[in-house]
Design a protein that fits this description.
Blueprint (H helix, E strand, L loop, with lengths): L25 E3 L5 E2 L7 E6 L4 E6 L4 E6 L4 E4 L2 E2 L5 E2 L2 E6 L5 E5 L4 E6 L2 E8 L12 E2 L5 E4 L3 E3 L3 H6 L1 E8 L4 E9 L11 E3 L11 E4 L5 E5 L4 E6 L2 E4 L12 H14 L1 E6 L2 E6 L23 E3 L5 E4 L8 E7 L5 E8 L2 E7 L2 E7 L5 E7 L8
Parallel strand pairs: 1-28, 7-8
Antiparallel strand pairs: 2-31, 3-4, 4-5, 5-6, 9-10, 10-11, 11-12, 13-14, 14-16, 15-18, 16-17, 19-20, 20-21, 21-22, 23-24, 25-26, 26-27, 27-28, 29-30, 30-31
């Protein structure tokens, strides 16, 4: 049984009084115990089968495979196409029951059922019975799909888009039952006319919006942007942690350039060629053509919120461009800030396995290498 991880920096004495939301233990993941010998172009999704094997999707290369850190080998899964057991464009990966994984096939607008031995002919169409497009944000151990209505512009959702407050929904495709678990805030959007459908992800750089993630047991963890706190919802109850103080980072030219560089390195755009959708690198945005806020929200960026296998929420903190590290805040099941973890350079959490974290870093050729870090053993609180 996994227990929450507690991080303590080397050569740092942490007292019980200091381990508060205002002054949590701070440390790093240390050094990786393994680096996969081949880089990838664009890690759209990663799902750990165990501490050594991870399924990795690369949407630009159009590949899906099992990366074995013990042997250094890649075992391909499936192939591109439109038929049974094929995918159009590999996207996000979601852990379902056991070793079953759901993959978002952005090319064919469906979820595929993936096992270590291949892709099932079973598919789930990404269209809710109410007519809403489904952009999954998580899947639980029962195979239920979690999504929200933030950023969706269509006539039936104009009121939601204008309000800047959208429900987080749990949909069971087997029964077509849909439950509302909580609500999230996002930048409001204008109304659209009948027959129009637009999907806006993010609402612009450094725009405050709530981010959320899902645990296998169906609990939803939401990081609130307005007062920076974490809430957990599910099973008919919810719990909210205390607000975490933070000093907003001002958005200057360096921060604008850093965002544009990140979009050029990891941003993806979809184009249609001969009726087929495919992904390619997005061009570097012109920062003079972008509307910028004065300050950053408390968290933002690629993979802003992740859930560990121990039931914690990791939030990627916003930081000034001059910083050479990335900082993650770690929240427990009661929404309390229990640790701060730093990663060196252009590193970011891709996902978690049993007792390990999988981390990506981008090299000078904009290729991503996957490292494996052992997580510290749980420590007793005194």
């Amino acid at each position: 049984m996994h227990r929450p991880v507690r991080f303590v920096a080397a050569a740092l004495i942490v007292t019980a009084a200091a381990a508060t939301a205002q002054n949590p233990p701070t440390g790093s993941l240390g050094r990786p115990d393994a680096t996969f010998p081949e880089p990838i172009t664009s890690p759209t999704g990663i799902r750990a089968l165990d501490a050594n094997r991870v399924i990795v999707a690369d949407n630009i290369e159009g590949t899906l495979g099992i990366f074995d850190f013990r042997s250094g080998q890649i075992t391909p899964i499936g192939r591109q196409g439109e038929g049974p057991g094929e995918f159009g464009m590999p996207g996000a990966l979601y852990a379902a029951r056991g070793d079953t994984t759901y993959m978002m096939d952005m090319g064919n607008r469906r979820l595929l059922v993936v096992t270590p031995s291949g892709i099932s002919s079973a598919t789930i169409q990404l269209q809710h019975p109410a007519g809403w497009p489904v952009i999954p944000r998580g899947v639980d151990a029962e195979g239920r799909i979690y999504f929200d209505l933030a950023g969706i512009q269509m006539a039936s959702l104009n009121e939601v888009a204008a309000s800047g407050r959208a429900p987080v929904l749990r949909w069971d495709p087997a029964t077509n039952r849909t439950d509302t678990l909580t609500f999230v805030a996002f930048p409001p959007l204008p109304a659209v006319g009948p027959g129009e459908t637009r999907i806006t992800m993010g609402g612009g750089p450094y725009r405050p919006r709530d981010e959320w993630t899902v645990l296998p047991d169906g609990r939803v963890g939401v990081a609130r942007a307005a007062d920076y706190r974490v809430e957990w919802s599910g099973s008919g109850s919810s719990v909210a942690g205390p607000p975490v103080p933070y000093d907003p980072v001002r958005v200057g030219t360096a921060e604008k350039d850093a965002w544009a560089d990140q979009m050029a390195a990891r941003g993806v755009m979809v184009e249609v060629v001969n009726g087929q959708r495919r992904a390619r690198r997005a061009p570097r945005p012109d920062i003079s053509q972008v509307q910028w806020p004065d300050v950053m929200p408390p968290f933002s960026g690629f993979g802003a919120v992740r859930a560990s296998l121990t039931g914690e929420l990791w939030a990627l903190r916003s930081g000034p461009a001059r910083e050479s590290t990335r900082k993650y805040d770690v929240f427990d099941a009661r929404g309390r800030l229990t640790a701060r973890v730093t990663l060196e350079g252009d590193r970011f959490i891709l996902g978690f396995g049993p007792g390990v974290a999988f981390v990506g870093y981008t090299d000078d050729d904009d290729l991503v290498w996957i490292e494996r870090y052992p997580l510290p053993a749980p420590r007793r609180q005194t």
